Amino acid sequence: MRFEFHDPRVDPAPAGWAEFSRTARLHPVWDYELMGIEAWGARNPQQVVVATDGGEVVAGMSVLVCRPWLAPRFAPAPGRRSMRPFWAEVYQPWLSGYPGIVFAPGFPAGDRAALVRAFERALRRHLGTGLLGVLYRAIDGEFAGHAAGRGRLVRPAEPTAVLENRFESEEDWLKTLPSARRSSLRRRRRRIAEDPELTVRGGPGRDDVDAAEVAALIKEHRGRYGKLPLDTRTIPSAGFLHRFVRRPDVHTLTYADPSGRLLAVNTLLDHPDSPCMQHWAALPLDERGRGSGLYFDSYVRAVRFMAQRGAKELSAGRGMNELKGELGFLPRKLYAAAAPRPVLGR
């Protein structure tokens, strides 16, 4: 087993990465070029680590190299090590509810714990003496078992919300909801469709979207609700979003007023098994002046997409689980695991 470290800002993609991405059915955010654009704008940039066996990629890891908040705002230059202590997070930052480690189909479950330990030893050698430890985010129960052990900490994390697809259409889904919620969603859907001063557009590969406006709206929206505790992500840049929303496997839903001003936006990651509702941002209702219920409308459209796609489920990420439960989504258990430096690889 070998481990190769790649900085997507400057290094070429790992050999076999494109084929691995297809066979492992990875979501769009695992695209290597896209991760490079994300890393250039991130305070804690991603590295891509691949495990190979006989020259074949058997696992891939997205690793964020994270530094204390007292460190400078921008990341060190590629190839330059931080002079301050830091930690690593195995995490895919814009794929809520999914881990930052993926395995090739058919890779034996019984070999995964050994791979994790070998990865930690390689990470310790590669990153050097400043590495304080490793945090695995958004892992399932099986992987939590692989990451557990003496001197390690495994704890439940906020669950992710998932809707199992049992529907031929959005109407089938609406029929399963409580009467009051069903009536409210239908009423909002009708009101939005009949509003002549609200322009709603959605679809893949949007080249008509102003990425700078989307980035500003996401930043304003998240600033209004406050930063999540222990969140090491950086707000997505306009450069990242410009490339992102133009991908054929990213669907972007926009709501705009007659002047073209963006009122709300939602991105959805296409996937044959589990499409994911991703970025949501909107102006406050008193600023946009219209379009109440846009958040719920985005769910109606996402469920419609899932049903038409014939996917197994729709993922809505973490947070607001009570509200998502009213829409039929169920929580899926997630865990976080921490391995301090003294026990890495053991």
Question: Quick summary of this structure?
Answer:
About 30% of the residues lie in helices and about 30% in strands. It has 11 helices and 13 strands.
Task: Give a structural overview.
By secondary structure, the chain is of the alpha+beta class. The chain has two domains: 166 residues, Gcn5-related N-acetyltransferase (GNAT) (Aminopeptidase, 3-Layer(aba) Sandwich), CATH 3.40.630.30; 146 residues, Gcn5-related N-acetyltransferase (GNAT) (Aminopeptidase, 3-Layer(aba) Sandwich), CATH 3.40.630.30. It is built from eleven helices and 13 strands. The strands form two sheets. Strands 1, 2, 3, 4, 5, 6, 7, 12 and 13 form a nine-stranded mixed sheet that branches. A hairpin with a 2-residue loop joins strand 2 and strand 3. Helix 6 crosses helix 10 and helix 7 crosses helix 8. The protein is globular and about 60 Å long. The two termini are 17 Å apart. The model has no long low-confidence stretch (mean pLDDT 92).
Descriptive tags:
BioF2-like acetyltransferase domain-containing protein, Aminopeptidase, BioF2-like_GNAT_dom, 28% strand, nine-stranded mixed beta sheet, globular, single chain, 346 residues, Acyl_CoA_acyltransferase, four-stranded antiparallel beta sheet, alpha+beta, 2 domains
What is the number of helices?
11
CATH superfamily of the largest domain: Gcn5-related N-acetyltransferase (GNAT)
Write down the overall mean pLDDT.
92
Shape: globular
Low-confidence stretches: none
Secondary-structure-derived class = alpha+beta
